[in-house]
């Protein structure tokens, strides 16, 4: 696998919570464009969906930094004080929003939260691994609300995005491995941004412990350890 030298430089940046940067790439550009349209969404809610590790949570952090939205979990929505969720900023991020499907109390809660947001001209950002059409919601009124709201997919990160993320994560820790290390990792690591963060943290720790730089042999050792621990795919 060969990587163009410009890969880490070609992606746009967004500031997120905690001073982190968010890298804009083809895999997430549509979702970024929708979040940029806020608060001029055509409906009170926007669903952002995609596989684990694709960057949905980080996107939500970017939006929360702008909207001051409260974070809620779909699996606990039935026990939440819905007016209190909207009260601070009139905006809520509902993580695991598809967890309401098939649970009458949770479906009712999301339905009422949606209606409250609409009445108060607020907004909901719904995060899910599955597209809303696959949620199997039983409550017809909620199903129609979700169907009428926009939904945008975030694709798994491609090599360009993963390379840029690895370079940035290493730089955040004052590490400058050669591109041969990046190339080696890309060919063998789990295709997720979450795993990239864990991998770089593990490499940083191993480098400090062994008093050695981040090299391909060290990358091989750390990947084997993570894979044996079940954190990454077999290489």
From TrEMBL:
Alphabetical list of InterPro entries matching this protein: Hda_lid, P-loop_NTPase
Pfam families according to UniProt: Hda_lid (PF22688)
Gene3D superfamilies, alphabetized: 1.10.8.60, P-loop containing nucleotide triphosphate hydrolases
Residue ranges occupied by any Hda lid domain in the UniProt entry: 171-223
Coiled-coil portions: none
Name the UniProt record assigns to this protein: DnaA regulatory inactivator Hda
């Amino acid at each position: 696998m060969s990587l163009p030298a410009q890969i880490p430089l070609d992606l746009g940046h967004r500031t997120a919570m905690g001073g982190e940067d968010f890298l804009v790439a083809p895999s997430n550009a549509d979702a970024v464009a929708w979040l940029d349209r806020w608060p001029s969404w055509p409906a009170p809610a926007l669903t952002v969906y995609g596989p684990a590790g694709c960057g949905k949570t980080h996107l939500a952090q970017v939006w929360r930094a702008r909207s001051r939205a409260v974070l809620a979990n779909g699996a606990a929505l039935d026990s939440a004080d819905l007016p209190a969720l909207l009260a601070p900023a009139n905006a809520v991020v509902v993580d695991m929003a598809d967890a309401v499907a098939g649970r009458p109390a949770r479906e009712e809660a999301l339905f009422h939260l949606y209606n409250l947001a609409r009445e108060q001209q607020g907004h909901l950002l719904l995060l899910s691994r599955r597209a809303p059409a696959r949620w199997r919601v039983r409550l017809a009124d909620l199903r129609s609300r979700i169907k009428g709201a926009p939904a945008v997919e975030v694709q798994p990160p491609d090599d360009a995005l993963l390379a840029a993320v690895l370079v940035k994560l290493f730089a955040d820790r004052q590490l400058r491995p050669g591109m041969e290390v990046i190339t080696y990792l890309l060919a063998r690591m789990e295709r997720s941004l979450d795993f990239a963060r864990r991998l770089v943290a593990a490499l940083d720790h191993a480098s400090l412990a062994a008093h050695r730089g981040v090299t391909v042999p060290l990358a091989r050792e750390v990947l084997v350890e993570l894979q044996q621990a079940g954190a990454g795919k077999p290489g």
